[in-house]
Amino acid sequence: MLTLGSFITLKNLFYVLVLLGAVIMFSNMLIAASLKNKIPGGFVGKWLLIMWFFMFFFFLAEAGAFFFITSLNNINLSYFLIGLVLFFGSVFVAVVNRFVYHLIKELALDK
Q1: Quick one: which of 45, 51, 57, 106 could link to 39 by a disulfide (CB 3.0–4.6 Å)?
Q2: How far apart are CA 2 and CA 10, in angstroms?
Q3: Closest to 63 in 3D by CA, of 13, 33, 18
Q4: Burial letters for 71-104: b for 16+ Cβ neighbours within 10 Å, e otherwise?
């Protein structure tokens, strides 16, 4: 008989978190794409496009993890893939910080 305790395992929580992360990232991609259409270009437009590509990478990583992790027999490959995603996550945060800094700078110039 299935109980709540048998359902709540770290592996099942992994799948839930990855699936929710993929849904959130996909919705972020849709929002960023709609914003890109409203920005004429320049620094902000260029960096928004770069951010969109990072979001796409994370969406692929999350969607791929949901289906791919169970078939991995090599734990070293798992560590490498997780490290790769975390590294690009740090780069993504740097890109977002640079984007927001210049966005605020451009908005302040308009005043």
Answers
A1: 45
A2: 16
A3: 18
A4: eeeeeeeeeebeeebeeeeeebeebeeebeeeee
Cβ–Cβ < 8 Å for 26, 60: no
**What is the crossing angle of helices 75-109 and 42-68, to 10°?**
160
Nearest to 68 by CA among 29, 60, 76: 60
Contact 95, 51 (CB under 8 A): yes
For 3-50, the pLDDT digits (tens) are: 766 777 777 777 787 788 888 888 888 888 887 777 767 777 888 888
Which region, left, alpha or beta, applies to residue 9 given φ > 0 means left and ψ of -120 to 50 means alpha?
beta
Q: What pLDDT shows up at residue 70?
A: 64
Q: How far is CA 100 from CA 7, 11, 80, 104, in A?
A: 41, 36, 30, 6
C-alpha to C-alpha distance for 24 and 89, rounded to whole angstroms: 15
> What global pTM score does this model have?
0.65
